[in-house]
Amino acid sequence: MPENEYAYGLWGAVLFNIIFFGLFALSVFKPTTKRDWRTLGAFTGFIVALFSEMFGFPLTIYILTSILGKNYPVLDPFNHINGHLWVALTGGSPVLFEILHPLSNVFIFGGLIIIWIGWRKIHSGHGKLVQDGIYRFVRHPQYTGFGLSILGFLIQWPTLITLIMAPTLLIMYRKLAKKEEQNMIQEFGKEYIDYMKRVPRFIPRIHLINFTKKEHT
Prior knowledge:
It is found in: Endomembrane system. The chain is mainly α.
């Protein structure tokens, strides 16, 4: 789509992306409890809000332009490039758009890959405690992946609704992870407690190597 054209009303694109990301989340998340379904429902709501504004109706832009009026940073807020809120708030810089768009894709698809790797690894464990592969670095790679994807979506196309929803989703993932850990402790006991001590929950540890000078006497 050319950068100076109206970028909304593409409800086919809205529906396609909601179905694609929704089915992917359903396939890897595999909800079983009410808490699982609530978490998946919240993520689906995030996706619906995101793509409805990205391709359908730019509610955030209408709200901001009605509040700011002539003080809104760009003259034509409804074309493709100015629909990106971070770009618009910095005056419509195409350079920033060219940086943020590929960066957001790195987070989004990197997160999806992490989710997929974690899902394959855990389901190949056949009921045993998985501690190798990606599980050497984090205890809940699926939630790490969801977090990265959400961050990517916020970089790519932030809206007022998704900016509010994102922290709520992350809190839900944290609570769900803690609940799963309690279940794992009941199932595996000390083995899982020792695993928890070695491996962080969501963010891998960065091991810094300190180089010290040897003293020669």
